[in-house]
Amino acid sequence: MRKITAAITGVSGYVPDEILSNADLEKLVDTNDEWITSRTGIKERRILRKEGTGTSDLAIPAVKKLLKKTGCDPKEIDVIICATTSPDYVFPATANLIAHEIGAINSFGYDISAACSGFLFSLITGAQFIESGRFKKVLVIGADKMSSIVNYEDRTTCIIFGDGGGAVLLEPSEEGYGLNDFQMRTDGSGAAYLKMEAGGSRNPSSHETINKRQHFVFQEGAVVFKFAVTNMAEAAATVVERSNLKPEDIAWLVPHQANKRIVEATANRVGIGMDKVMLNIQHFGNTTNGTIPLCLWEYEHKLKKGDNLILAAFGGGFTWGAAHIKWAYNGSDYAE
Fold first, then answer.
1. What is the pTM of this model?
2. Which residues contact residue 82 at a Cβ distance below 8 angstroms, ignoring those fewer than 6 apart?
């Protein structure tokens, strides 16, 4: 019997219509387009502004498109894993809300919180369900409404983040397609440098925490940048080496879209040019858990069956990792 691997058999994404450009941010904080672009590579980001909407409203359209394009009946879905840093509620899980809205009545699901590494960690987790042989269809979603936790008076963070989400369908393969190798790491000492200071059990919500504006993203950019450049690049290089891949064997690097300079450092460490790097940070900014699936969605038409992809991510707290995936289909046959 051949080894079962977890292959991505479809991908889709969704971003809101409203664009928040660098020019728009110039009206809110002391910044400018040149400063933002030169440091991050971001020109604009999407914002979900409608009252009463949450992260599930970014995930559900992506999942519905994914099910339609793959011809998958939602009743066939076994597991739903949603990676998010901005869930609709503390509980129930956003995955539960998604399951209800799409009609996945035979599934179970839960959220994973690993900051910007969440989608990668969720993908690897979902793959284990497939590899066990017990489940046949696993939905892995990465989505965030970062505008709900960004302080638009803080120019160090408000320029970075946007809203969006994407989803992939995992199914069994006996031909070696899908997840072949991965590395995941965490370092809790990073909690001091990238976090939300209030709203959890250690520092519950109160009038004081609201007045101190502690329910927004807090980041010490220089420290985070140094850790991210080193660890995301090293994780990617480790997976490439363990998979016995040469730079010419890699079709695409699919990095978390945190910062263009971090992406460039990772590509350089792996030994490939930027022409083989998926990049959409200029249009969407950092959508946290949405970045990698949104890249796969946008570049799907360029993907070919058998392509070697290296996924890499770095997140707050700190979390980081990388994975080697062999693509399972010709994207041009299914691209939206």
1. 0.97
2. 59, 93, 94, 95, 98, 109, 110, 111, 112, 122, 141, 142, 143
